[in-house]
Amino acid sequence: MKNLHKKYKRFKEWEKQPHQVAPLSEVHHECATCGTSYEGNYCPRCGQSAKIGRYSFKNLLYLL
Predict the structure, then answer these.
(1) pLDDT computed for residue 63 by the predictor
(2) Which of 11, 20, 21, 36 is most buried by a 10 A CB count?
(3) How far apart are CA 35 and CA 43, in angstroms?
């Protein structure tokens, strides 16, 4: 029960903080998933992050 109370307290503290958004990247990228050329942090066509390569089952396991 104490663990749950600590998590709730940390969540409430986090909730009060302003959300920070990473500045847009000015580097030209090509999406690994759909091949679209774009500037910014995410592909406008499929939503793929510029930091992450192609979606795969292996990448999914790293996130878990």
Answers:
(1) 67
(2) 36
(3) 9
Closest C-alpha to 50, from 21, 30, 20: 30
CA distance 29 to 35: 9
12: phi then psi, degrees, rounded to nearest 5: -65, -40
Residue-wise pLDDT for 5-57, tens only, equals 999 988 888 888 777 777 877 888 898 888 899 998 889 999 888 887 666 77
21-28: Cβ within 8 A, 24+ apart: 25/50
Contact present, 44 and 36 (Cβ < 8 Å): yes
Residue type, 22: A
